[in-house]
């Protein structure tokens, strides 16, 4: 699991303590850069999503509201006022980390510049055609997170190339050693996660991967990334126990997928399930929040092309982000 560098932040609370003033700027900077990124992705749709009533529940708008809140508060999380927003805050900070890895740049140069050919006009057009839909926008965020995970590996050279056509898989990984190509289709489930819906996503992805492979004459394994973060709320788990146990809700999804990947849909070599977890640890004047985007790969029993550990991880996929929180008292 990829570990992010901790960012020290402070929370105002009724408990007595102290803090380092400069730490609030670090968090302030993260939210400022994340807001820039969202604007870049939305492009000319930014004003519509931000202001029109029909987009009041759009995930980009909710992220922007969190960014504005934290910017207005100078990077300070207020407690207990912001207690119900802590998960959203952690998610935005984690996405900041993920996209920073995509760009391959510093936190002060926070754009998609070096992420494959995402600067290609056709890819920009493809992305902007997806941002108005809640599901498509979140699927795009899953695509970024997944591609960034592999771009951030150091044991071999990888290039992530997004595809232009919406009917194609979302992106392909080109791996130099060992030489291979992996096709990825990323989908975010929004309302339900029953077996019928999962089967429809697998069937659609199988068709896309199969047709693309035939047209391009590729002998490539295909992976469906199924992000169920929106259906399975951010789960609180015991500190340091998350890697040893799969939550029951995820286990149920895993069992459904295993039953589907036996004989049919052989172009889908595996399904990568993604979900969110967080841990909270309190000791004296320090709180530690740890946010995880976890993943588990369910492999096909009889795939057309098999996944091997030499190409992508078969377990312990994901990111972790640590937020040490220092407390300070206040009068009101």
What does this protein structure show overall?
This protein is an alpha/beta fold and 332 residues long. It has eight helices and eleven strands. Strands 1, 2, 3, 4, 5, 6, 7, 8, 9, 10 and 11 form an eleven-stranded mixed β-sheet that branches. Strand 6, helix 7 and strand 7 form a beta-alpha-beta unit. Helix 1 runs antiparallel to helix 3 and helix 4 packs across helix 6. The chain is globular, with a radius of gyration of 20 Å.
Short description:
The chain has 332 residues and is α/β, with parallel strands linked by helices. The protein is built from eight helices and eleven strands. α1 runs antiparallel to α3 (59-72), α1 crosses α4 (86-103) and α4 (86-103) crosses α6.
Question: Which helices and strands appear, and what pairs or packs with what?
Answer:
Elements: E1 2-3, E2 9-12, H1 22-42, H2 46-51, H3 59-72, E3 77-78, H4 86-103, H5 121-128, H6 134-151, E4 158-162, E5 171-175, E6 180-188, H7 195-216, E7 221-227, E8 235-236, H8 248-260, E9 270-283, E10 286-299, E11 317-328
Parallel strand pairs: 1-11, 2-3, 2-11, 6-7, 7-9, 8-9
Antiparallel strand pairs: 4-5, 5-6, 9-10, 10-11
Helix pairs in contact: 1-3, 1-4, 4-6
């Amino acid at each position: 699991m990829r570990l992010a560098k901790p960012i020290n932040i402070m929370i105002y609370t009724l408990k007595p303590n102290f803090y380092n003033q400069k730490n609030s700027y670090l968090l302030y900077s993260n939210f400022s850069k994340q807001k820039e990124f969202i604007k870049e992705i939305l492009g000319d749709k930014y004003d519509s999503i931000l202001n029109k009533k029909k987009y009041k529940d759009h995930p980009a708008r909710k992220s922007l509201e969190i960014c504005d809140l934290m910017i207005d508060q100078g990077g300070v999380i207020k407690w207990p006022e912001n207690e119900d927003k802590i998960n959203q805050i952690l998610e935005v900070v984690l996405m900041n980390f993920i996209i920073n890895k995509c760009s391959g740049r510093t936190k002060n140069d926070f754009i998609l510049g070096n992420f494959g050919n995402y600067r290609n006009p056709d890819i920009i057009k493809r992305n902007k055609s997806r941002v108005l839909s809640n599901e498509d926008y979140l699927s795009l965020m899953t695509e970024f997170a997944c591609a960034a995970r592999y771009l951030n590996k150091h044991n071999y050279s990888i290039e992530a190339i997004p595809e232009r056509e919406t009917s194609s898989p979302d992106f392909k990984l080109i791996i130099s050693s060992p030489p291979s190509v992996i096709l990825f289709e990323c989908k975010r489930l929004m309302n339900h996660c029953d077996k019928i819906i999962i089967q429809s996503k697998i069937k659609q992805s199988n068709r896309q991967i199969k047709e693309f492979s035939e047209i391009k004459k590729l002998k490539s394994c295909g992976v469906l990334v199924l992000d169920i973060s929106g259906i399975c709320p951010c789960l609180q788990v015991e500190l340091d126990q998350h890697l040893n146990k799969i939550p029951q809700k995820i286990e149920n999804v895993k069992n459904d997928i295993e039953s589907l990947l036996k004989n049919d849909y052989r172009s889908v070599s595996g399904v990568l399930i993604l979900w969110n977890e967080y841990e909270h640890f309190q000791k004296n004047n320090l709180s530690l929040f740890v946010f995880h985007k976890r993943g588990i790969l369910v492999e096909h029993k009889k795939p057309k092309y098999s996944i091997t550990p030499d190409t992508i991880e078969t377990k312990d996929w994901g990111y972790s982000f640590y937020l040490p929180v220092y407390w300070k008292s206040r009068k009101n």
